[in-house]
Amino acid sequence: MQAKYIPSTVYDQLVEAGFFGSPERRSFISYAVRRLEKCIEALRPLMVIAPPGIGKTALAYSAGVAVALNYPHVLRVIHVLPLRSIVDDVYERFGKGLERVGVSRDLNIVARQYGMLHGSPYLQATYVATTVDTYAFSLLKLPVGEYVNLLRYEGYHGHYELPRASIYSALNFMDEAHLMLEDATGVDRGASFIRTVIHHLSQTNTPLVVATATLPSRVVDLIKSIAGELEVVNYAEFVGKQGEDEFCKFEVEKRFNPIGRGLEEAQRLLDRIDECTGAGRLCIFTNTVKSALDLFNALGRKPILLHSRFTPKDRAAKLEALKRSNITVSTQVLEAGVDVSFDVVLTELAPISSLIQRLGRLARGSVKEGSWLIFYDDQSLTGRSIYDPDVTRETFNALLKFAVKGNVHWHLPRLPYNVERVGYMQLIDAVWGNLQVVGSLDLDVLDALERLDVESRKVLEYLEKVGSFVRDENLAPLYIGVPEEDYASFRESVAERLIPMGLSEAARYVRLLLEKGFQVHLVKGKTEGGGLKLDVEELKASQVTPSTFERRLRMELVSGSALALAIPEELYEGGVYGRGILWP
What we know:
The protein has 25 helices and 23 strands.
């Protein structure tokens, strides 16, 4: 094996060639890639803990390019991410990087695989970016390309070992792990699933990286006990031993100035926004789409509004306009995967990991100073039915102890010196020091992974019982307008007309539309005359009962036989300043 084909050397060459858009080589990333090589060769799992914005994804990219250049220790990289928006961003950045170094995207080195996009159904591309749900189905003997046959034909067993073989021969790169592993209740099926997979992959000597910025120390210790010989590469420890690196030297000089005490009730929010006008680029984060819409309307519809209910074309237009806009209102969609900097960030109270991600958009890059405020109301304090109320409450208590003093450095986990300020890890550990750390495995999932006599149909029975392996994140895309029967035209219109929405929420939305007298159609694919066509079925209220509709829709969407739910065009407001999906 020539040295130029190993990930560490590839990383240096990619930096030099401009793959990452910058010639800056980061010593921590270089160190982490070298440790990754050693762990792959020694068949040991690796955890990488480093701040937002430092470039952890470069580890996965470097390994992926090395594989394309015949690196022999793994056959591919499977990049597992908790959010579709980050999957899209990882895919786009990899593609742009390839173009910068003169490699065509047409070579299909990188692919996306999730509910709306089937770039590599058996996860066999050189580099696959995928969601946790799709990864779960593939690992647990339910390949998405054969799901419909498993449902329809009693004697059908499928080719489930194809995606499983892809996973066991890949570097499994689990990114943004804090979004998948933090569990203070013991009822989070997603966290239990990921813990079980980490345990199983470590037992089978499958190459594995768990990457995170904000995982609590107690959860890290738990994963160490689950994963056996887990090696941990921690940026805070690296800086402590090696001294300040390039990232730390620049970041440590930044100043994050609290507005007022840094934590106050939301009733003064509009006044605070007025006060911040003219202070630079401002972003206000809210925890729900409804809150974002209410604030957008209260501000006279002048900001850029960002949430998950826009078409890909409108989302791209909004992100482009974001670079020129002085004020943005956003939900969690800007927490990760978007490289953007603001001079002022106002954010609704949320669990500490989310707050750190949001404030990671403050004074980013070469900007040396920024102002921040965390606002809350009674609903914020209880998690607004989105976040764990215990984690949210402990976050509030930790903020009262540390953040109101204005001495938190939001970009660095720990400060190498300067006892007057604390790094964000001190807040994280303060929050989780008073919370339960749950470490149970999902024994049903473990059976499906380890026992040869557990095949697809038994796993399917389990899925029907629990609803989902992970959270209820199965997609039910909404299509704006009623498509024509031509499948090719439908695919071409996806960027302008398709909107991802969680299945349960989409089902509630469809029921509401039908109650209000709107027409809704289920768009399905069918084979006819040797080609693909659309079958557009008008739904009736009797077909969308809660007891049966979601189950049917989930199965048809996962299998690919159902493509979207078509809603009337008047229920979508697009454009740079549009509001997105409208509720009647």
